[in-house]
């Protein structure tokens, strides 16, 4: 027997069972909306029907439950169950009429960072719900619709033709009109930095989102200078305007432990994090030493470091063993700003996957675009300047607006645009304002 025939036989059997247990009733019913209906579905009896109840156990996927109202005691959670922000969630409902209940469920799931693109429903009353949900970007699959149900019940002479006709009339006259708007691709609600900080687990990511929100800054300045005095002077000047200072510690001529101490004091005073742009790219055992030992002892002072995914997961395993105990975090380089770079396509995709598998240590990406829907991941974009398109050595620049609005960066990284300016504090303020306004534009549009 063909698969499709088998399926339709099973649907037929299920509909007859539902009729027999009075989960589908015919008569004169007042619906929640106040409308009189000749057909009524009461699928609460299904709890004794393990088909739906066992879906998650049968397929071994975690199940979440949405409360109608947040309970007013205990955790006050709307969504019960364990999940990672950014995970996809399929909505399973019993009956769909206008689609508004599925839409509400999708909105509460999305407010906690889950991604919703599909819903399945046992019975579609065929009153416009499918179209409404399509407009909201949710594809609805139903096991059975009212018209098929009526055909099945008529075939087995469970109801007279007059009742079936009455129900068909009712559906025709009570279909929720599709909205006049042309279908648009669903725009998911953009979460604020504060909301994202609440969602993420890693203390460094939480702290960074908190600083970005309270200082109104999504600007990181790259202090690519060669003396400690120049770097400390710059850090003090731009400190009030930045959420993070990025260093290249191996270009400093007079590196010392005192420098690290002074930089840490400035970071505490002005409230910014320190990101050492070391771009680790060796086997796990070697990067462990590079991170912990040597002249720089990076793990002792840098809140954040970054790594290439090129060597495979070992690079993260090695760094993690040094950094996790010190509550440090890592960014993976998934895309680069330089002309002709090879971090594209499958390489970028594999990097995102590697980050997803190491979320206890990796808090985001160095990238040129948004690569993950997971709101806990921070996307940082270098190659940003207000004027200028390149540096003659392969660097390519975009504007703060382009980086944040078009490419969906969370943080812009600016080096020469700030430290080469005769007045770095004012330049930093200009970048801060431009990038934060771009973020606010994204939030409200
Ligand atoms: O793809 C990248 C990754 C990084 S971390 N492109 C980059 O330019 N960077 C770094 O960002 C680079 O090493 C430098 O420190 C900074 C950009 O500096 P700017 O002077 O060109 O703004």
What is the number of independent domains? 2
Roughly what fraction of the amino acids lie in strands?
Answer: 15-25%
Described by its quaternary structure, the protein is single chain
Give the termini separation: 52 Å
Architecture (CATH level 2) name of the largest domain: Alpha-Beta Barrel
Major β-sheet profile: 8 strands, parallel, barrel
Radius of gyration: 28 Å
- CATH top level assignment of the largest domain: Alpha Beta
CATH fold-level name of the largest domain: TIM Barrel
Note poorly predicted spans: 180-186
Bound molecules: 6-sulfanyluridine-5'-phosphate
Trace the largest sheet across and list its strands: 8-9-10-11-12-13-14-15
The average pLDDT value, as a whole number, equals 90
Classification by helices and strands: alpha/beta
CATH homologous superfamily assignment of the largest domain: Aldolase class I
What is the approximate shape? elongated
Number of strands: 15
SSE layout and pairings?
Layout: H1 3-20, E1 24-30, E2 36-41, H2 50-53, H3 55-59, E3 65-66, E4 79-80, E5 91-96, H4 100-111, E6 118-124, H5 129-135, E7 139-145, H6 146-155, H7 161-173, H8 193-199, H9 203-215, E8 219-222, H10 228-238, E9 244-247, H11 257-270, E10 273-280, H12 284-292, E11 304-308, H13 314-323, E12 329-333, H14 345-356, E13 362-366, E14 378-382, H15 400-406, E15 411-414, H16 416-419, H17 424-444
Residues 222, 224, 248, 277, 336-338, 366, 382-383, 395, 413-417 line the site of 6-sulfanyluridine-5'-phosphate (S5P).
């Amino acid at each position: 027997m063909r698969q499709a025939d088998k399926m339709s036989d099973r649907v037929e059997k299920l509909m007859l069972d539902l009729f027999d247990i009075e989960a589908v009733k015919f008569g004169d019913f007042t619906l929640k909306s106040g409308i009189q209906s000749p057909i009524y579905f009461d699928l609460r009896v299904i709890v004794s029907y393990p088909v739906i109840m066992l879906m998650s156990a049968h397929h071994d996927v975690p199940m979440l439950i949405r409360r109608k109202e947040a309970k007013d005691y205990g955790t006050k959670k709307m969504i019960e169950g364990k999940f990672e922000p950014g995970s996809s969630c399929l909505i399973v409902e019993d009956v769909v009429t206008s689609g508004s209940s599925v839409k509400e469920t999708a909105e509460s799931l999305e407010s906690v960072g889950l991604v919703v693109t599909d819903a399945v429903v046992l019975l579609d009353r065929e009153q416009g719900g499918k179209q409404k949900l399509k407009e909201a970007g949710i594809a609805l699959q139903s096991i059975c619709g009212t018209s098929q149900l009526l055909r099945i019940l008529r075939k087995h002479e469970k109801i007279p033709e007059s009742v079936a006709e009455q129900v068909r009339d009712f559906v025709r006259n009570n279909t929720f009109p599709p909205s006049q708007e042309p279908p648009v691709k669903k725009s998911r609600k953009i979460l604020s930095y504060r909301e994202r900080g609440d969602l993420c687990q890693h203390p460094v990511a939480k702290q960074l989102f908190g600083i970005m929100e309270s200082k109104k800054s999504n600007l990181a300045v790259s202090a690519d200078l060669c003396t400690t005095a120049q770097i400390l002077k710059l850090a003090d000047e731009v400190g009030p305007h930045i959420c993070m200072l990025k260093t290249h510690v191996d270009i400093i001529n007079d590196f010392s432990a005192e420098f690290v101490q002074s930089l840490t004091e400035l970071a505490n005073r002005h409230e910014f994090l320190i990101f050492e742009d070391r771009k680790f790219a060796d086997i796990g055992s070697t990067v462990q030493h590079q991170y912990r030992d040597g002249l720089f002892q990076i793990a002792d002072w840098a809140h954040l470091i970054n790594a290439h995914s090129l060597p495979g997961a070992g690079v993260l395993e090695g760094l993690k063993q040094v950094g996790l105990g010190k509550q440090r975090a890592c960014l993976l380089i998934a895309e680069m700003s330089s002309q002709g770079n090879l971090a594209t396509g499958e390489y970028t995709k594999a990097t995102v996957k590697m980050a997803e598998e190491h979320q206890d240590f990796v808090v985001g990406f160095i990238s040129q675009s948004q690569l993950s829907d997971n709101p806990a991941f921070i996307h940082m974009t270098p190659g940003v300047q207000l004027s200028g398109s390149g540096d003659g050595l392969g660097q390519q620049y975009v504007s703060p607006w382009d980086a944040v609005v078009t490419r969906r960066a969370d943080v812009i990284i600016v080096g020469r645009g700030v430290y080469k300016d005769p007045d770095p504090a004012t330049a930093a303020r200009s970048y801060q304002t431009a990038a934060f306004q771009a973020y606010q534009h994204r939030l409200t549009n």
